[in-house]
Amino acid sequence: MGKNGKTYIWDWSPAGDSLDNHFPFPPPEVTDSATISQGYDRRLRECKRHGRAGPRRRPRAAGSARNLLLTLPALLVLGCRLPGNEGPVPESLAMSRQLTQRGVAALEQGHPAQAKQTLAEAVRTSPVDPDARRHYAESLWEAGDRREAVAQMDEAVRLTPGDARVRVRLAEMQLATGDVHSAQQNAGEAIDRNPKLAPAWAARARVMRALGQPRRALGDCHRALALAPDNRDLLMMTAELYRHLNQPQRALGTLHTLADTYLPGEEPHDVLVLQGFAYVALGRYDDAARAYQTALAKQPASPEVLYHLAEVELMAGRPADAAAAAREALALEPEHRESLAILRQVETAAVEGDSYRR
After folding, report:
1. Residue 204 counted as domain residue
2. Considering its fold, how many domains does the chain have in total?
3. H or E segment to which residue 357 belongs
4. N or C: more exposed end of the chain, with fewer CB within 10 A?
5. Using 50, 70 and 90 to split pLDDT, how confident is the model at 22?
6. What is the DSSP letter of 86?
7. In a domain, 271, yes or no
8. In which domain, by residue range, is 316 found?
9. End of a domain among 64, 91, 112?
10. How many angstroms separate the CA atoms of 229 and 250, rounded?
11. Which of 23, 49, 64 is the last residue of a domain?
12. Is 313 left (phi over 0), alpha (psi -120 to 50) or beta?
């Protein structure tokens, strides 16, 4: 503010040959008044040293600040939005979002019936709210109403066509309900919209596997793992595809990578069983037996895993251990055919051995 009552701003362009061509000031990011004032003093000395005129001041109407104050009530009426932007959130949409939050909370707290009812009300309150549709679809899915869940998620996609994540979830639901070709289309469109979205590649990998195209599924798994290298579901699917394609060494390497995502001793049962399969395919029977034994210690014994243990013990030349594992399997399931076959094989070999020795 000058003595004449006018407000001044600094014109940083010197007269004549502009020194700003070499020393532009102030930078656009500097807005602090003290910093600009100090910079002006330095700039003035620089201009004098170069024999050039210093910065000039030009007047600006002091009423501009007053005008800004006069516009504040109008901004408040607009809901704290600048003119030209959207107006305040409609009351129906605001109510829908509140209901959606309550419904999601109920779902997370284990009250699916309450969640479904609340989210249905959210959709009725604002049918154009895509979040309400999406969460309502999830509540329907949780309740077992899969057909209506797919319909609601499809509507959520229509309301937000550019949201690749919503489209991925629709593809997952469609695949689970057997609509493989619709799932393939939506997974592909999700990739087109966001090729850096790992779940989109994973969804299409599952679709390709369901369509009996394991190599294409494996390719999509690799694209997904490039974006999410520690994703356990992706690593498991990749290992299963390698096993299906008879590539046990790569399957085993992938399973080791998957096991490394857990603390030592916390590897899941299924990972250990798949490691056992890979070891058997590679002829590493002792390693396979250890993997099966560790898996059996993780959860209640199953006839299938006990049978695989019996089989690998027989391959390793330990018929007594094979018979013991087969008997454990038969104790759980007396008619387990594979275990019965292993036990008969061991007993026949024992009888033949006794005959030979005589």
Report:
1. no
2. 2
3. helix 337-357
4. C
5. very low
6. -
7. no
8. 300-358
9. 64
10. 16
11. 64
12. alpha
CB 100 within 8 A of CB 74: no
* Percent of the chain surpassing pLDDT 70: 73
Cα-flanking dihedrals φ and ψ of residue 81, to 5°? -120, 145
Q: Which residues contact 316 (CB under 8 A, 6 or more apart)?
A: 285, 286, 289
Cα separation values, 354 from 348, 350, 351, 357, Å: 10, 6, 5, 5
Q: What is the pTM of this model?
A: 0.71
For residue 30, tell me if it sits in a domain: yes
Quickly list H helices, 53-111.
63-77, 91-108
Summarize pLDDT for 244-275 with one digit per residue, the tens: 999 999 999 999 999 999 999 999 999 999 99
pLDDT, tens only, 153-165:
999 999 999 999 9
Q: Which two tokens stand for residue 296?
A: 């059996």
Three-class DSSP category at 61:
coil
Q: Is residue 324 part of a domain?
A: yes
Q: pLDDT band at 43, cuts 50/70/90?
A: low
> Are 134 and 156 spatial neighbours (Cβ–Cβ below 8 Å)?
yes
Residue 328 pLDDT level (bands cut at 50, 70, 90): very high
Report the run of H or E that residue 11 belongs to, with start and end. strand 7-11
Distances (CA, A) of 40 to 17, 18, 23, 65, 135: 18, 15, 12, 23, 57
Burial of 109 from C-beta contacts in 10 A (0-12 / 13-18 / 19+): exposed
